[in-house]
Structure formats: C-alpha cells, structure tokens
C-alpha cells in the first residue's frame, strides 16, 4: 500500500515536470524522482508501522508539558553598576519621574511634540559647543578617535585599554546621535 502511494506521487511529479518543462527534462529527473520515491516509501512505512508509538510519544509530551507555562524570550534588564548614574538621570528626566527624591522632567513634560532627547552630554563628550556645525563636529570626532583609538594602546595595561575602548564607544555614540541632526 505504501509503495503504491509513493509510486503514484512520483508518477504525478513526473507528469507535472514533463508537462511543465518537457519530457526530456522529466526523464533527466528520474534519478531524483527515484530518491524521492525511496524517501517517501521509507518514511511512509515507518509512520504506518510505528503510528501508535508516535501518537503515544506526542500524548505523553502533551501531558508532561500542559501545566508548564509557554516559554518566552528572556528579558534583559538594564543593570545599574554605579558608573552609569548619568544615564539613569537622563532616563528619569525624560520620563518625568522621580530620581533621588527629586522631581525630574522640566521641559520634557511640557513638550507638545512628545519625547525630546537631551543631547548636551554628546556635545560635552565631543568637546564642541551646541552651535557647532557639521564640519566642527566631524573634526572633533576625528581628533578624539585618533586620540583614543585602541591601536595606539596595544602595549598598555588592560585597565587603560578598557578605558580607551569605552571612551571610543562614547565618542562613536555621540557622533552618531549628533550627525543624525544634519541628515
């Protein structure tokens, strides 16, 4: 029975290939069709003979997992390590909440256009004033990258390398945020 079903499937595939692409190509596909026939025949025989065992395994898994909640993706929370207090202050200032017992918010809550990011720290990182042009920002960025590039500190100790890597990350972030204003 399984072999007749798989043979019927292969004949239908042969006719579809023959009608669509021509019977010369269908004859050329006979080795591939034979492999498909063997796979369908084997898996069909396997499923037919072990159907009850497969059904029993599925049922046992269902019973074992029905009381467990579905797994979801992990949520990674922002960790406070003492060095990122400025980030937390900015977050709470923008959110308009309390931080350190003081009300934050100010002009962010009164902004009719929604969220406005405070970019003053990025200007501080690059060492330019808030009225700097695109070229001034680019020049300051390039100078700082040259100054803090990790390749200059290959022979330095690990703490110094880490400091300059973190500084370079800050510089890149600042340049990315400020260069968006000019595009």
TrEMBL record:
<protein>
    <submittedName>
        <fullName>J domain-containing protein</fullName>
    </submittedName>
</protein>
<dbReference type="GO" id="GO:0034975">
    <property type="term" value="P:protein folding in endoplasmic reticulum"/>
</dbReference>
<dbReference type="InterPro" id="IPR036869">
    <property type="entry name" value="J_dom_sf"/>
</dbReference>
<feature type="transmembrane region" description="Helical">
    <location>
        <begin position="32"/>
        <end position="63"/>
    </location>
</feature>
<dbReference type="GO" id="GO:0051087">
    <property type="term" value="F:protein-folding chaperone binding"/>
</dbReference>
<dbReference type="InterPro" id="IPR051727">
    <property type="entry name" value="DnaJ_C3_Co-chaperones"/>
</dbReference>
<keyword id="KW-0732">Signal</keyword>
<keyword id="KW-0256">Endoplasmic reticulum</keyword>
<keyword id="KW-1133">Transmembrane helix</keyword>
<feature type="domain" description="J">
    <location>
        <begin position="121"/>
        <end position="183"/>
    </location>
</feature>
<dbReference type="InterPro" id="IPR001623">
    <property type="entry name" value="DnaJ_domain"/>
</dbReference>
<keyword id="KW-0472">Membrane</keyword>
<keyword id="KW-0812">Transmembrane</keyword>
<dbReference type="GO" id="GO:0051787">
    <property type="term" value="F:misfolded protein binding"/>
</dbReference>
<dbReference type="Pfam" id="PF00226">
    <property type="entry name" value="DnaJ"/>
</dbReference>
């Amino acid at each position: 029975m399984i072999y007749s079903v798989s043979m019927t499937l292969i004949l239908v595939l042969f006719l579809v290939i023959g009608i669509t692409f021509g019977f010369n190509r269908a004859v050329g596909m006979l080795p591939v069709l034979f492999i498909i026939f063997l796979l369908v025949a084997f898996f069909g025989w396997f499923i037919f003979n072990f159907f009850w065992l497969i059904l029993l395994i599925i049922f046992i898994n269902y019973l074992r997992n029905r009381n467990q909640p579905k797994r979801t993706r992990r949520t990674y929370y922002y960790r406070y390590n003492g060095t990122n207090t400025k980030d937390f202050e900015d977050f709470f200032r923008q959110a308009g909440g309390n931080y350190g017992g003081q009300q934050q918010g100010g002009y962010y809550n009164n902004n009719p256009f929604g969220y406005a990011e405070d970019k003053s720290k990025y200007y501080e990182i690059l060492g330019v004033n808030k009225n700097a042009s695109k070229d001034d920002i680019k020049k300051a960025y390039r100078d700082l990258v040259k100054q803090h590039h990790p390749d200059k500190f290959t022979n330095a100790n690990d703490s110094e390398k880490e400091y300059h890597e973190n500084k370079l990350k800050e510089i890149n972030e600042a340049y990315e945020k400020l260069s968006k204003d000019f595009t």
